[in-house]
Amino acid sequence: MTAVVEETAPGKGHGATAAERDHTLITITLRIRRFNPETDAEPYWQDFKVEADPTERILTAMMKIKAEQDGSLTFRRSCAHGICGSDAMRINGRNRLACKTLVKDLDMAKPITVEAIKGLKLEKDLVVDMDPFMQAYKDVMPFLITSGNEPTRERLQSPEDRERFDDTTKCILCAACTTSCPVFWSDGQYFGPAAIVNAHRFIFDSRDEGAEERLEILNEKEGVWRCRTTFNCTEACPRGIEVTKAIQEVKRALIFRRV
Amino acid sequence: MSATIENAPKIHGGGPSIESPRSKRSPRSTKTNFELYGWLFMRLSGILLVVLVLGHLLIQLVLDGGVSRIGFAFVAGRWSSPFWQSWDLIMLWLAELHGVNGLRTIINDYAERDQTRFWLKALLYTSALIVLFLGTLVIFTFDPNIGS
């Protein structure tokens, strides 16, 4: 790397501990798509130079920018460890979690672009309106539906039955898949991969009895039949869920129940 | 095992009430299997069309002298047989409907305004009707003695 700069104990705040670890700090450029609805008509790119350890995450660099350079930089993050699903962003053109993307995995010599996920209304900087996304999630009824009396003990399930939908239980609702889907970009009414994944999680759950209703919902005009199998969702998923496969399984379930 | 239609639970009546989960979105009213059949049709007609179209091209362009022997007499000869009549009829309908459904999907994907979408689809369906009508008419009413 040409941009390597040896860190010599800056001795301010926590900087000293970083020097003690004797890691190589390099200067990276984050090119962040900024937007302030109160002053800007259009989003614009702004470059920030920030020192980062290559093994650090993009989120760390962004928090450093927010703390040291520009406090108005706005983004969501909560757990910062890839579980809460708050910080899905489009980094170097691909949807990823900022908290799971290491600096060293990107091209450090070039500016790293960071922008909001696409297809949802931009509110500020990297924050988008998640309501339509969450509404699609609610629409597929992501809760256990049963009939009859409540059992007196837990609802048992064989390991095989559990395995059937194991993959789709991993979803953290970060919206990386849905906002990478070209069909969702052009048609916001499409349920989107995330909602279908969460429907899949219950449709194929042996304890659940709402499969027919969920399939009926996904059989509608804006349901699974809009999927073009472009696999953007599978590539974007930070949890490694085989999203397109799940959608195809829902399609198959619909075909063999209806035809 | 998952539930069948008969014992699907009624979540809207009785039991623990859940705040209407689909209130905010525009109501989706299509309770048909239209999109399902459309999707299935694309796959099945696609498979058939591979055979029909490649067979058609092979006969018309490659076998037995190829394109040079095609003339009025050649077409008249082929359409005197019900087999080739059906072949061409099935190929016409499948190819036209396959193409129309594909274009319908593309229009749905790319037309941003409802008006644009409406008029593009109107144009598409009109053209499909004309092609299907004319094609079918010719196959059924073809007169080999039209010149004499």
Summarize the structure in words:
With 259 residues, chain A is of the alpha+beta class. Chain A has a 5-stranded mixed sheet with strand order 2-1-5-3-4, covered by helices on one side. In chain A, strands 6-7 form a two-stranded antiparallel ribbon. Chain A folds into 2 domains: 15-128, Ubiquitin-like (UB roll) (Roll), CATH 3.10.20; 131-258, Alpha-helical ferredoxin (Fumarate Reductase Iron-sulfur Protein, Chain B, domain 2). In chain A, 30% of the residues lie in helices and 14% in strands. The longest helix of chain A has 16 residues, at 243-258. In chain A, strand 3 (88-91) and strand 4 (94-97) form a beta hairpin. Chain B has one domain: Up-down Bundle (3 helical TM bundles of succinate and fumarate reductases). In chain B, helix 3 (82-110) runs antiparallel to helix 4. Residues 1-17 and 23-27 of chain B have low confidence and may be disordered. The A-B interface holds A 131, 135-136, 138-139, 141, 143, 145-147, 182-183, 186-187, 189, 203-204, 206, 208-213, 216-217, 219-223, 225-226, 251, 254-255, 258-259 and B 1-5, 7-9, 11, 18, 21-22, 24-26, 28, 30-31, 33-36, 38-40, 108-110, 112.
